[in-house]
Design brief:
186 residues, alpha+beta, Peroxidase, domain 1, Glutaredoxin, 2 domains, four-stranded mixed β-sheet, globular, CF(1), membrane, hydrogen ion transport
Amino acid sequence: MADTSQLVSGVAERYASSLFDLALEAGSADAVGADLDRFQALIDESDDLKRLIASPVFSAEDQARAVAAIAGKAGITGLVANFLKVVAGNRRLFAVPGMIRAYRTIAARHRGEITAEVTSAHALTAAQEKELKAALKGVTGKDVAVAVTVDPSILGGLIVKVGSRQIDTSLRTKLSTLKLALKEVG
């Protein structure tokens, strides 16, 4: 069976790269990034939108109409709205979250930053995010763009991934390690 995560990654990177090239040409790379972030927030907040994006049951036309309506209500226009319509028409909506992550990475690289994927048990405050960026800059020596994902199942702490390096200080991992250690003793 084919590894679908690799397939999604390749599709997402190609679409994100094309969108970034168009955004650079139009001089609106930051505005496009903000619109993509807004659309990602909508996905994160709505189970129905997640279902629409992931389900092959909906036709391309239904997906395109729904995405156009959602984007219009959210004030997402221009390049991103057209991009979402094209993605829906090409039956690639399932890869939109990957496309958004890839766009962030490409944009950060263009600005001379590196991207850190951070998983937290709860949303970070602005002060916490600023402190995390400063700590990561001290370690990497470069400016760091942080993409935060909230996952309550890690219970506490953070999982930080920068490039191929991952630092897992989550409470879930610490409890699992303790559980294994106790099994070995007893």
